């Protein structure tokens, strides 16, 4: 093959943001197929953008000599989903230091603890509610309570509803346009200001919080220069824990959709931890959630003969890589069994980003997510008497994230 300089295959047109809204999770796959290429150039939000797909492309994307994250994400995402000044937009030593703070919260004991909290909260929820349970709505509340308890953010019993209703627009509505998008922004403003106040109170000793928990830890965390973080940054990072824990509700809703649609696989998952683990991995591979990760080119470089230009926004297709026929047999079939053979490559199965946790930007909460899914699946399959009513759940591939809206009936 001729690896001399070539331009990245380019989609012509002024801007393709509207197609992204229409095609959703298929946007990059469609272009990759059309141009028969693992990298395609398009234009999004008025900017030249590279789209990458597949395992080798993921290895490239997570090479920190080639890509950086500072202000990589569009401002609309920073004002809603991510916040400004958080770990997602850091590079180099600053990133490593901040990321180590997140990873230090994910000890075996603390992951075990969050599993028992989530079980308690499910039990409390089911005891207090009527027979019919809307999974997504219930899970958001259960997870908000869990997140507040686990992080040690001071809150009253009756506040959890309010937290849940403000945390969920951050991920449910961030990618929407119009009033929903504004709701997402407004929720972030309110939550950041609420948390900043608490940070100041802890620092001036007018509020006491549990010392072994994440909130205390982040409030007193020192950066690589030995300085405390700005209270606003503390708020952003605490929301980087609370928001995605509540967002696990999306995966829990998909778990029930999978139980509904694949009863044989669900029956198998009753048997033990490993069977459930494979079921959960397949839920995270098969269903769409986080569409792509975003970075920018650090300096001009060549890859497979293509020239990448400095500063260009670059998207790595997470959904597309998880459905890449070069990596997965029958990628559009739900088959938990495939994970018996998966070797744990950090770049082929990337629902929560790829690469390393410590030096790269792979999701800090991946183990926590899997643990919460495991304990919830076990709880409902083996300890709760419930049935799935006849329903026609559906979700759209251009809703980010899609919510199937499952219902279950509890038989007390
Ligand atoms: C609900 C399911 C979740 C999904 C689908 C998800 C997905 C992701 C993705 C795609 C990234 C970005 C990867 C990249 O930029 O390369 C990420 C980063 C991150 N996630 Fe998650 N996540 C989830 C749950 C969690 C949880 C439960 C937590 C914390 C308790 C968490 C904390 C973080 C943090 C702090 C980052 C930034 C890491 C960095 O920039 O170094 N996530 N997540």
UniProtKB/TrEMBL annotation:
Keyword annotations from UniProtKB, A to Z:
Heme, Iron, Metal-binding, Oxidoreductase
Entry superkingdom: Bacteria
* Heme as UniProt keyword: yes
Q: Which cofactor does it need?
A: heme
* One GO molecular-function entry: heme binding
Which residues hold heme? 363
> So what family is this one in?
Belongs to the cytochrome P450 family.
The keyword Nucleus is annotated on this UniProt entry: no
Which Gene3D superfamilies does UniProt cross-reference here? Cytochrome P450 (1.10.630.10)
Q: Which SUPFAM superfamilies match?
A: Cytochrome P450
Name the record gives this protein: Fatty-acid peroxygenase
Q: Name one Pfam family in it.
A: p450
Q: Which CDD domains match?
A: CYP152
């Amino acid at each position: 093959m001729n690896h001399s300089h070539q331009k990245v295959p380019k989609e012509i047109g002024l801007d393709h943001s509207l197609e992204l809204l229409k095609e959703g999770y298929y946007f990059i796959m469609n272009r990759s197929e059309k141009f028969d290429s693992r990298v395609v150039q398009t234009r999004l939000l008025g900017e030249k953008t590279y789209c990458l797909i597949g395992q080798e492309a993921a290895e490239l994307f997570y090479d920190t000599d080639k890509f950086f994250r500072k202000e990589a994400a569009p401002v609309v995402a920073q004002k809603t989903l991510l916040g400004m000044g958080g770990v997602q937009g850091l590079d180099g030593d600053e990133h490593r230091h901040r990321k180590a703070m997140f990873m230090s919260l994910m000890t075996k004991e603390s992951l075990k603890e969050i599993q028992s909290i989530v079980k308690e909260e499910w039990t409390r929820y089911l005891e207090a509610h009527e027979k019919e349970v809307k999974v997504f709505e219930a899970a958001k509340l259960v997870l908000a309570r869990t997140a507040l308890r686990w992080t040690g953010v001071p809150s009253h019993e009756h506040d959890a509803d309010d937290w849940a209703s403000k945390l969920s627009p951050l991920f449910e509505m961030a990618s929407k346009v119009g009033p929903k998008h504004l709701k997402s922004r407004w929720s972030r403003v309110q939550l950041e200001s609420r948390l900043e106040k608490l940070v100041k109170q802890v620092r001036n000793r007018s509020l006491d919080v549990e010392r072994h928990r994440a909130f205390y830890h982040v409030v007193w965390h020192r950066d690589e220069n030995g300085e405390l973080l700005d209270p606003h940054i503390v708020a952003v990072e605490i929301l980087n824990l609370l928001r995605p824990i509540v967002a696990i509700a999306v995966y829990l809703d998909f778990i029930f959709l999978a139980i509904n649609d694949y009863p044989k696989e669900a029956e198998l998952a009753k048997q033990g931890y490993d069977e459930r683990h494979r079921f959960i991995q397949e839920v995270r591979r098969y269903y769409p959630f986080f569409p792509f990760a975003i970075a920018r080119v650090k300096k001009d470089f060549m890859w497979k003969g293509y020239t990448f230009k400095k500063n260009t926004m670059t998207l790595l297709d997470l959904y597309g890589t998880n459905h890449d026929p070069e990596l997965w047999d029958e990628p559009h079939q739900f088959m938990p069994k495939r994970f018996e053979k998966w070797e744990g490559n950090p770049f082929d199965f990337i629902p929560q980003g790829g690469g390393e946790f410590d030096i790269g930007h792979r999701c800090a909460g991946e183990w926590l997510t899997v643990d919460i899914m495991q304990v919830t699946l076990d709880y409902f399959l083996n300890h709760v008497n419930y049935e799935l009513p006849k329903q026609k759940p559906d979700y759209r591939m251009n809703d980010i994230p899609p919510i199937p809206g499952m219902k279950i009936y509890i038989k007390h």
